[in-house]
Amino acid sequence: MWGAALLAGALALLAWCVAFLRRRASHWRARGLPHLRPRLLFGNALAYALSRQSCAQLLEDAYRRLAGHALGGFHLLWRPALLVRDPALAGRLLVHDFESFRDRGYRPFDPMLQDLFFLRGDHRWRTLRESLEPGFGPKGARYLFFLLDEMALRLVKVLETPAERCLELEVFEQMQRFVIDTVGTCAFGVEFETMLNYDSFVLKETQRMISGSFLKKIKKTLLLAVPETARAMGMRFVRPEDAAVFRWLTAEIVAHRRRNNVRRGDLIQLLMALAAKEADAGQKDGFGGEMLSAQVMLLLMLGRQKVAAALAFCLHLLAAHPEEQTRARVQVDAALRRHHQQLSLQALQDMPYLDMVLSETLRLHPPMSNVTRGCTAAYTFRGASRLGDGCLRLQPGEAPVMVPVCALHRDPAYFPQPDRFLPDRFAPDNASQHTPYTYMPFGAGKRSCLGEHLSLVLMKTTLARLLSRYELFPSPRTEYPSPVDPRQLLLSPRDGLWIKISNRHWLPCD
Ligand code: HEM
Question: Where does the chain bind heme (predicted)?
Answer without folding.
Answer: 449
